[in-house]
Amino acid sequence: MTEPRFSQQQREQPEPSEGSRPVPKLVLSVIAGLLIWAVYYLYATYNPMPPSLGDNRVAADFAVPVSADGGQLYTAHCVACHQANGKGLPGVFPPLSGSEWVSAKDPGVMIKIVLHGVQGPLTVEGAKYEGLMPHFHDKFSDEEIAALVNHVRTGFGNSASTTDARYVAQVREETRDQATPWKGDEDLRPLLRSR
Ligand code: HEC
């Protein structure tokens, strides 16, 4: 290499070269400390925003309302005994098709049967049954029972009036002390006569 001839060349710094110095432990530990602090900070300050900070809507407000499907409930909970065509099994499971209980003027009769079940001699369309109809008060909401009752009262060849969740809620409240199934004709027959 020849001697630099110009003063500008003499002023120049040597080319930089990469050193072999590792990142100082102190810097590494500060970075690690920051990471740990960041995780702790996220954890310590986690605050599920109260809806009052926004426009007061909660997750449920965005849900698409799903209305109860009587046909689906029937298939899931009643078909095993009362059969897909609602005609039951002769001598074992009474028919819902054409039944005086189902089509009673007051839909409350069927609501009561579905809420609390029946056990004991029950006459349906002139035939005697003595089985056990399970209760559903703890399985179905008022809306579900209304959908189910409407499905049965207007299907299977029946054409009785429909009901709604409010009426189911009222019947549920009126019969809340009923801890056992209705005793067949003995408990239920008077309901048909009274309306
Ligand atoms: C485990 C079998 C079983 C299931 C499940 C069942 N039932 Fe019943 N149900 C019966 C029996 C048995 C009787 C008659 C009770 C008696 O003899 O005292 C009956 C009676 C009835 C009656 C009054 C009599 C009639 O035929 O009209 C209605 C109404 C009724 N069930 C509706 C339903 C509905 C609605 C469901 C579904 C939510 C349902 N049942 C599920 C067995 C069942």
Mean pLDDT: 91
Strand order of the largest sheet: 1-4
In DSSP terms (H or I, runs of 4 or more residues), the helix count works out at: 8
The ordered H/E elements are HHHHHEEEEHHH
Within CATH, the superfamily of one domain carries the name: Cytochrome c-like domain
What does this structure look like?
Helix 3 packs across helix 6 (142-154), helix 5 packs across helix 7 and helix 6 (142-154) packs across helix 7. The model has no long low-confidence stretch (mean pLDDT 91). The protein has helices at 7-11, 25-44, 70-77, 79-82, 108-116, 142-154, 165-174, 184-193, and strands spanning 118-119, 122-124, 127-129, 132-133. The termini are far apart. It is built from 8 helices and 4 strands. The strands form 2 sheets. It has a two-stranded antiparallel sheet. A two-stranded antiparallel ribbon has the order 2-3. It has 195 residues and is mainly alpha-helical. The chain has a domain at 70-190: Orthogonal Bundle (Cytochrome Bc1 Complex, Chain D, domain 2), CATH 1.10.760.10. Bound molecules: heme C. Heme C (HEC) binds at residues 77-78, 80-82, 93-96, 99, 101-102, 110, 113-114, 118-120, 122, 124, 129-134, 136, 148, 152, 184. It holds the Pfam family Cytochrom_C. This is Mono/diheme cytochrome c family protein. The chain crosses the membrane at residues 26-43. Keywords: Electron transport, Heme, Iron, Membrane, Metal-binding, Transmembrane, Transmembrane helix, Transport. Residues 1-11 have a biased composition (Low complexity).
